[in-house]
Amino acid sequence: MEKDLIKIYKQLKKILKKYENPLKPKMDMDSKYDLWSFKDIEIDGRKRNEVFFAALVIQSKYVGFYYMPVYVDISLKEVFKPELLNLLKGKSCFHIKSFDDKLEK
Fold first, then answer.
1. Which of 11, 60, 88, 97 has the fewest CB atoms nearer than 10 Å to its CB?
2. Is residue 105 included in any domain, yes or no?
3. 62 occurs within a structural domain
4. Is the sign of the CA dihedral 84, 87, 53, 3 positive or negative?
5. What is the DSSP string of the chain?
6. How many distinct structural domains can be found in the chain?
């Protein structure tokens, strides 16, 4: 792994860790981290006791930031600034290759 990606991963993980209460990780490793909601809810008529919220994964050329709420409610993209939206690939995965104060905000 490229050390720049490890640094980006650690910076992003620090931000996501702030949400560990009420969310909880299933994976908390050196290259993969995720957050889940563990409570009984119903989505589209199906009962669930856990819902995937977000994840970070170090890939070969970027850190993948997966933000699942955007997948089910596209209007949530409006909370992100253009600096982050420009990194969106697909519906819910951001490919982050560099990280600075502007992107953090």
1. 60
2. no
3. yes
4. negative
5. --HHHHHHHHHHHHHHHTTTTT-B-S-B-SSEEEEEE-S-EEETTEEES-EEEEEEEE-SSSEEEEETHHHH-GGGGGGS-HHHHTTEETTTEEEES---HHHH-
6. 1
pTM over 0.90: no
Is residue 54 in a domain?
Answer: yes
pLDDT in tens, 59-77: 999 999 999 988 778 888 8
Q: Which residue has the tokens 């910076």?
A: 11
Q: Which tokens belong to 35? A: 């957050």
Q: Domain residues for 10?
A: 3-100
